[in-house]
Structure formats: C-alpha cells, structure tokens
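Sample entry (267 residues):
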Amino acid sequence: MKKHLVMTLVALAVFGSAATAYFYWRHGPAKPVVAQANLPLPLPPVPVQPPPKPEVRQVVEPPPAPQPPLPDLDKSDRFMLDALAALIGNKSLMRLFDSEALIHHIVATVDNLPRRIVPANALPIDPPAGKFLVEGSDDAATLSARNAARYAPYVRIAEAVDAKKLVALYVRLYPLFQKAYETLGYPGQYFNDRLMQALDDLIAAPEIAEKIQLVRPKVYYLYADPELEKRSAGQKILMRMGGINERKVKTRLREIRQELALHLRQH
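Predicted structure, serialized as tokens:
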C-alpha cells in the first residue's frame, strides 16, 4: 500500500525547539557547541541503531523547471536562513534559529524524534524561554497547563508560512537534506523515508484531555503512566505543548501532506 509522506520545514523547527525543552527537562542545560577558528562545526554523532530500511521508498521529484545552483552543504546556512526569513516574515521569530550547520541539525533532529532522546547538539533552534512548570507536590505532581505558553513562538512559526511556498522550498533544497542525511551515516537511504517515520510517529501522539501525572524518582520528572513514559521523544514533545498547540501543529502537518504528496514518486 502506498504511504504518503508528511513534510514541513516548519515542523522541523517547531519540534526541534520542543526537543530542546525535553532535553532541558530530563537532563538540564547542555554546554553550547563552540566552533574553533577555521574549523567546521562538528556534526552530530552517528546513531548507534540505524532505522530499519522501509519496504517502500519515496523520493521527492525535482522541480520541473531549471533552478539556479544550490550552495554547497557546508556553505548553505545563509541561503537557508534567508529562505526561511522570506517565508516567516518575522525577524523576532528568526532569532530562534541556530545560524550554524542548520540543515545538519534539522536532519539530525528528525532522525532522533522517533527515539527516546534527541541529543542537544542536534537541535536547530533555541529552547523555549522560562522553566519547565509543574503543579502540586512531588508526591502528586502534574504537568502545568502554563507550559503551553512557552511554545507559542514556535507555533506562530508553523502558522506564519504558506504551505505551497514551504513545500516548494523543501523540494528545491532537498538535495542538501539528502546529502546531510547520508553524512549522518545513512548512505544509499532516503531522508524522506526517515522523515515519514518520524512524522507518522508524531501524528500518532495521544491527545490527553486530563492533567498528566508526573513522578520524580530522583532529580528529573518522568511521566507517572509507564505507557506515556516509554513513548518517543517526539510524542512527548507534543503531549507537553498543550492540547490547543498540538492540534494546531497537526493541522499544519496535514495541510503540508496534501501539498507534498504532489511531488512524490515511489522508488
């Protein structure tokens, strides 16, 4: 059965930023990656367990009309930031993006979203402002609904862009995403396939109406329900964003799916 790929650079930004919050919740602040003079920014480590090779592989069709040449991957940051700025149209929101190795970080984040943890050095965007908020005592702690406000800037990014223009940008830049994925340690595999797995996993995240119970066995909070605690990092991100934010993001993903499906072919 043919599967449909869901893709959006906005989703990458939103979930990348939320993944940062997940890392802060579980592990505390990470040390910043500092590039040495005249040396490239180090890439995220190659995952220990590569994703299974899917039976159906889907390829993004290149644009039909000739396009100006793309920059080299290691020189693509300014090109990528300018393209995103044109789509988002909000300078204050653009300050959230990492300005170095942006495509590498997006690809690494997507690759790790279905796993248990997204490494902090893979993230493409700054973390949400403020602290992770909990209500009640450690014996009866719940996830505070006020956390949803911390994700508002990233949801605004998702709502700010035009779906058709967003997909056109992704199709245009796909060779850079594919090259970054192969550099991460997946030669001969398609970035689209891993993205499909990640976004299918995200869309399957439960929408929980009641307050989410937490426990604190040591330093960091965990979900009290073992079924929630064992879910992927990406699904935990959506559950913490709040029901309204989660529905907005999923709505955007479905809109982008319809646009991107027009550019796919099976291989």
